[in-house]
Each structure stands twice: as structure tokens, then as C-alpha cells.
């Protein structure tokens, strides 16, 4: 079932997620809803905060580009795996290690920030420890867009959004849009509270 995506300005986007402890049918249903919502919005990642839940939980669906070869590394539990086999991926309780200290600048967007894009520095090379929807622990090694997407979604789980890390000049360029988006969100939240 598709669910509404929380826009910038909502308090929940600033909440650090609780660890996932119950790997039950409810979690599977949540994962299914998040994947459907992400696909419907043409996104490549969605975190629990973006649908109103403060949890260490996100989904990603990063596929290779136009050319046949996979343009990012994906190793799951020590073995190279085609993205097709593991995407969409459900990630609980992620711990990300940055494997190099080079700054990789690239444009990003976010489903909670419609119409807003800007350059963000990330690490191009990560190792991520996490649990799948059944609670089974895994280690993912990833580069490129997959590494970037996991860092973006894991940030959401810590209450961090991509404009916090956006290059100053891009943030400035988006300042008016951000202000309007936040204002509209707060207005809607107020109306909702009034019932
Ligand atoms: Zn996002």
C-alpha cells in the first residue's frame, strides 16, 4: 500500500530512529509499503522517517546505469552480486564505515524535498553492517551511487537531511524554495492538529 511521504519541515525528519527489534509480519508489511511508495515516486531510496516513523530502517533500489556493466560495486557477505538479484533491498539497523577519505561531490535529490537538488559530498566507498527484514545480519560493500544512496538514507535514520550537508552555494540557490516548502509543511501540520 502506498503511503504519504513526509515533506521537509516536519518534525519527524529530525528524529533519530529507534533500533528495529521486532522482525515480524508488521515489519515485512512496512517494508512492502515503503518499497511501493518509493517506486511510485520514482525514488531510489526511502527511510522510515519519510513516512512518519522514527526507526533505523530504510529501503533502497539502486540499479546499474544504461551500460550493461554494473557501474558500482556490490558485494554482499563477501561475494559480488548483481544488483538485479538483491534490489529492492531492505535495511535495518545499519552501521556504515567509510572506507576512504576522499570527498566525492555529486548532485542529490530527496523525496521529502520535491524540486530541490544540490551537490553533496559523500564517501564513494563504504562497508555497511545491517539486518534484513527477517533480522539476518549482513555485510554490504558498495561504491558509487549505491554507496551514496545508503549514506543518504542512513542519515535520515539519524535525523539528518541532505540539505544539512549540501554545498553552501547550492543551499543558497535553494534557500527560497526551502523556506516555502517548510512554511507549507508547518501550515499543513497546524491544520491537521486543529482537526
Ligand atoms: Zn532523502
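Sequence proposed for the structure above (195 residues):
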Amino acid at each position: 500500500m502506498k503511503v504519504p511521504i513526509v515533506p521537509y519541515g516536519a518534525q519527524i525528519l529530525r528524529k533519530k530512529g529507534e533500533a528495529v527489534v521486532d522482525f515480524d509480519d508488521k515489519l515485512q508489511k512496512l517494508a512492502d509499503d515503503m518499497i511501493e511508495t518509493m517506486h511510485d515516486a520514482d525514488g531510489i531510496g526511502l527511510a522510515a522517517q519519510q513516512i512518519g516513523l522514527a526507526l533505523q530502517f530504510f529501503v533502497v533500489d539502486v540499479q546499474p546505469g544504461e551500460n550493461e556493466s554494473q557501474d558500482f560495486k556490490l558485494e554482499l557477505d563477501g561475494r559480488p552480486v548483481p544488483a538485479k538479484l538483491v534490489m529492492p533491498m531492505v535495511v535495518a539497523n545499519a552501521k556504515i564505515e567509510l572506507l576512504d577519505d576522499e570527498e566525492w561531490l555529486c548532485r542529490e535529490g530527496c523525496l521529502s524535498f520535491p524540486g530541490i537538488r544540490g551537490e553533496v559530498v559523500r564517501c564513494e566507498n563504504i562497508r555497511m553492517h545491517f539486518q534484513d527484514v527477517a533480522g539476518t545480519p549482513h555485510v554490504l560493500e558498495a561504491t558509487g551511487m549505491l554507496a551514496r544512496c545508503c549514506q543518504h538514507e542512513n542519515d535520515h535514520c539519524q535525523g539528518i537531511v541532505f540539505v544539512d550537508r549540501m554545498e553552501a552555494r547550492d543551499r543558497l540557490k535553494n534557500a527560497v524554495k526551502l523556506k516555502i516548502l517548510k512554511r507549507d509543511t508547518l501550515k499543513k501540520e497546524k491544520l491537521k492538529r486543529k482537526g
